[in-house]
Design brief:
This is AbrB family transcriptional regulator. It is a single chain. The protein is an alpha+beta fold. It contains three helices and three strands, in the order αββαβα. A hairpin with a 6-residue loop joins strand 1 (about 30-35) and strand 2 (about 40-45). The radius of gyration is 12 Å and the shape is globular. The relative contact order is 0.21.
Length: about 70
């Protein structure tokens, strides 16, 4: 399965609620983000450790937390 979404201002990647529901992502989840070498696609999956702090997420370099755009704006 693959989906196309565009990165918006602030390097945010908006994931519609329906897409999050289908993928099993929820606000607060930590995702591993990997760029495919041969194209501009990004592969995302839930990280095995969902207890990381924001500092640990930032230092990892390839992790991101799912946030609500209405709360995060």
């Amino acid at each position: 399965m693959s989906y196309t979404v565009k990165i918006i201002q602030g390097n945010l990647l908006p994931l519609p609620d329906t897409l999050c529901a289908e993928l099993g992502f929820a606000v607060g989840d930590i995702l591993v983000c990997e760029r495919d070498k041969d194209c501009s696609a990004i592969r995302m999956q839930k990280h095995a450790d969902q207890t990381l702090t924001d500092e640990q997420i930032a230092s990892a370099g390839n992790l991101s937390r799912v946030i609500s755009l209405t709360l995060g704006e």
